[in-house]
């Protein structure tokens, strides 16, 4: 079930820190940032074993309910049952995601905005904490 954060404003230049704990049998979870469920600037989806993907991070954007092209990341520093921290920053051009192992990945800010108010986490992971600073 989605764990929705309301009245959250994530602006360019701020950092979002997300602490999640994937369940012991987690197939995948996602962190979604955008304007609403049909307009996501960032869909960050670590997949332990989902569809054809095993230990892969899939990122995408959703505009007007239509998915764009997926971007796949082979580095997978997530473990079932263990808490993980991700840090997300962005500007008009890019999202910058610092993974739990300290590696940085990025994803284009295809919606091109400098402020997003919609945020949710879906899938088999418990939210331990969320901070914007």
> What gap, in angstroms, lies between the N and C termini?
26 Å
How would you characterize the largest beta sheet? 7 strands, antiparallel
Low-confidence blocks of residues: none
Domain count: the total is: 1
Strand content: over 45%
CATH architecture: Sandwich
Outline type: globular
Level of helix content?
under 10%
How many strands?
14
CATH class: Mainly Beta
Examine the coordinates and then state which fold CATH places here, giving the name of the CATH topology.
Answer: Jelly Rolls
Protein model, in words:
The chain has 133 residues and is an all-beta fold. It has a single domain (3-132), classed as Jelly Rolls (Sandwich). It has no helices and 14 strands. It has strands at 3-5, 10-11, 16-22, 29-36, 39-50, 53-63, 66-67, 71-73, 84-90, 94-98, 104-108, 115-116, 118-123, 125-132. A hairpin with a 5-residue loop joins β10 and β11 (104-108). The two termini are 26 Å apart. The model has no long low-confidence stretch (mean pLDDT 94).
Helix-strand layout with pairing:
Layout (H helix, E strand, L loop, with lengths): L2 E3 L4 E2 L4 E7 L6 E8 L2 E12 L2 E11 L2 E2 L3 E3 L10 E7 L3 E5 L5 E5 L6 E2 L1 E6 L1 E8 L1
Antiparallel strand pairs: 1-13, 2-12, 3-9, 3-14, 4-5, 4-13, 5-6, 6-7, 6-8, 9-10, 10-11
Protein name: Galectin
InterPro entries: ConA-like_dom_sf (IPR013320), Galectin-like (IPR044156), Galectin_CRD (IPR001079)
Pfam families: Gal-bind_lectin (PF00337)
Quick recap of the structure?
With 133 residues, this protein is mainly β. The protein has no helices and 14 strands.
């Amino acid at each position: 079930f989605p764990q929705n954060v309301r009245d959250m404003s994530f602006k360019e230049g701020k950092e979002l820190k997300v602490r999640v704990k994937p369940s012991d049998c987690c197939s995948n979870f996602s962190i979604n940032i955008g304007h609403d469920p049909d307009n996501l600037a960032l869909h960050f989806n670590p997949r332990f074993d989902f569809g054809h993907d095993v230990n892969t991070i899939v990122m995408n954007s959703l505009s007007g309910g239509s998915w764009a092209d997926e971007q796949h990341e082979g580095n997978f520093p997530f473990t079932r049952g263990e808490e993980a921290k991700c840090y997300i920053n962005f500007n008009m051009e890019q999202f910058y995601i610092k993974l739990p192992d300290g590696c940085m990945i990025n994803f284009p800010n295809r919606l091109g905005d400098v402020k997003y108010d919609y945020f949710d986490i879906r899938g088999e992971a418990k939210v331990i904490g969320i901070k914007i600073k």
